[in-house]
Amino acid sequence: QKEVEQDPGPLSVPEGAIVSLNCTYSNSAFQYFMWYRQYSRKGPELLMYTYSSGNKEDGRFTAQVDKSSKYISLFIRDSQPSDSATYLCAMYYGQNFVFGPGTRLSVLP
Amino acid sequence: ETGVTQTPRHLVMGMTNKKSLKCEQHLGHNAMYWYKQSAKKPLELMFVYNFKEQTENNSVPSRFSPECPNSSHLFLHLHTLQPEDSALYLCASSQDPRPGGTDTQYFGPGTRLTVL
Description:
The structure holds two protein chains of two kinds. Helix content of chain A is 0%, strand content 59%. Chain A has strands at 4-6, 11-14, 19-25, 32-38, 45-51, 54-58, 61-66, 71-76, 85-93, 96-99, 103-108. In chain A, a hairpin with a 6-residue loop joins β4 and β5. Chain A is globular and about 40 Å long. In chain A, 32% of the residues are buried. Chain B is mainly β. Chain B has no helices and eleven strands. In chain B, the strands form two sheets. In chain B, strands 2, 4, 5, 6, 9, 10 and 11 form a seven-stranded mixed sheet that branches. Chain B has a four-stranded antiparallel sheet with strand order 1-3-8-7, with no helix packed on it.
């Protein structure tokens, strides 16, 4: 079983839709959870950072962590064409950073 | 200049060449990382430097040789690479990856490497 699983997509949605991106993981030691956005030909950019279970909201983005289910989500409200990118989940404990393979999202105008 | 910078942005090299990738961080961080990103695969951690000391080497072939002269600069020296080494090489930095820390990584734009 892979340590972090993420549907690679591609996921295509119309502009204005609510997008749900998800990752599952197997190691219950992970405590810190992150979402990165990566545009084509660029490095990943940190979007959201959460600790342990719960929700965190920042503008149109909401990150959700359910440690009991080992499941994390990123919701994007009122999606825009500029949100088209690959979204990487990542998680961390100690010096162990692990990334998911990324979900490619296209928001169509 | 702010954030994490990498040079060159693109590199094409033959299998017998020797080249180096450079990373510089302007964030005052103490830890730096090299990652390899291949198409449709997760980021692969290659090396970790914490306070200039190498703390992680994830079974990376010896044809990749890192160097960290100070906490702001990181190099990846390349020698006799293979075509399967073609990928995006990303540098990242973080404040402090010690266990129990609340650390996150900030990435550079990457070097797109093609090995012919």
